[in-house]
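Quiz preparation item.
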């Protein structure tokens, strides 16, 4: 897939999600992620404007040394997401291990809260959030119930098996607090419609709109 086809998709998905979940936009939105603490020339050369780099998914494995350098950007309205419980099948091999009286994914959430001092946005959510897979509903429910001030980045919708019924548990009672990610189900939507690449953008847009409507069928945004 050529790079210029990916950028319209990112814009479509971000606009649709922002329209569907206003709290996401209000608390600083995440449209795409860059792997360095500051926007670099690589982002621009890859066809992604530097202004779109709004969030970084961080690794907690090295502790605060690997996360704190990024949190200074939270003051600029950008976000850091810590991977708490991922959507891949073998995630439990590490993320469900006991660490004292907690499991690892809960330890990560506790660290996110600890590092969120002075980083809570105007709607009450921290600028540090959690990445939590949608295809493990008990974990998703548990984390949302325990950490009501952490914003969730939720992968796993579509090709990985999760649907709107699953991801509803990522949101709070107001329909806020999460943004749902979909990759292959949108990137390759044109294949399901038996169209060629010339219809790529429209197929992606239609898939994103369908995803939004499905989710809004299970939550009410107030």
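Solution:
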């Amino acid at each position: 897939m050529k790079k210029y086809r990916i950028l319209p998709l990112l814009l479509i998905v971000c606009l649709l999600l922002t329209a569907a979940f206003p709290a996401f936009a209000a608390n600083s939105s995440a449209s795409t992620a860059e792997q360095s603490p500051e926007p670099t020339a690589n982002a621009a050369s890859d066809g992604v404007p530097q202004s779109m780099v709004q969030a970084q998914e961080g690794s907690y494995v090295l502790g605060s040394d690997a996360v704190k350098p990024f949190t200074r950007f939270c003051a600029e309205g950008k976000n850091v997401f810590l991977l708490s419980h991922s959507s891949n099948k073998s995630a439990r091999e590490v993320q469900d291990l006991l660490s004292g009286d907690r499991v690892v994914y809960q330890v990560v959430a506790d660290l996110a809260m600890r590092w969120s001092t002075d980083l809570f946005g105007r709607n009450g959510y921290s600028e540090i959030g959690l990445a939590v897979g949608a295809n493990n509903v008990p974990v998703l429910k548990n984390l949302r119930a325990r950490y009501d001030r952490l914003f969730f980045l939720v992968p796993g919708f579509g090709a990985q098996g999760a649907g709107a019924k699953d991801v509803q548990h990522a949101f709070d009672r107001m329909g806020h607090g999460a943004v749902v990610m979909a990759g292959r189900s949108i990137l390759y939507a044109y294949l399901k419609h038996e169209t060629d690449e010339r219809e790529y953008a429209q197929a992606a847009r239609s898939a994103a709109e369908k995803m939004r409507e499905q989710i809004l069928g299970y939550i009410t945004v107030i």
